[in-house]
UniProtKB/TrEMBL annotation:
Organism: Diceros bicornis minor (South-central black rhinoceros)
Any single biological process term in GO: melanosome transport
GO cellular component terms given for this protein: melanosome
InterPro entries referenced in this protein's UniProt entry, alphabetically: Melanoregulin
Pfam families noted in UniProt: MREG
Highest taxon above the source species: Eukaryota
Record's protein name: Melanoregulin
Length: 129
């Protein structure tokens, strides 16, 4: 039973890492090479930049989840990415982020995306229920 639990924890961490890496690649493509890690960093002290942007950030995050494969299908949306989208809105980069995410991770079954220089696909392990 411990082995199964350890595997499930490992699989979830792998999925989180892959999602974070996808976001980081897109941020770097947008020109945020030096700022990508800080844009993705969310702590208990993180706040939304503007309460008016909260609704827009939530809508954009849902749009990303529904219209792209930036998140795995079994993924539950994390508040962490709500803060990241809020930061992108404040930087006026949210729409461009969505555009790149749509191109890089299209929501078309059977049409996988290979990043530049990537030789093969990397599939995410899905944790067992």
């Amino acid at each position: 039973e411990w082995q199964k639990l350890n595997y499930d924890i490992y699989a979830l961490r792998q999925i989180r890492r892959e999602v974070r890496d996808r976001w980081k690649r897109i941020l770097e493509d947008l020109g945020f090479q030096k700022e990508a890690d800080s844009l993705l960093s969310v702590t208990k002290l993180s706040t939304m930049s503007d309460s008016k942007n909260t609704k827009k950030a939530r809508e954009m995050l849902l749009k990303l989840a529904e219209e792209t494969n930036i998140f795995p299908t079994s993924w539950e949306l994390s508040e962490r990415y709500l803060f990241v989208v809020d930061r992108l809105i404040a930087l006026d980069a949210a729409e461009e982020f969505f555009k790149i995410a749509s191109q890089a991770y299209p929501k078309k079954p059977g049409v996988p995306y290979l990043a530049d220089g990537q030789k093969e696909l990397h599939y995410l392990p899905c944790p067992s229920p």
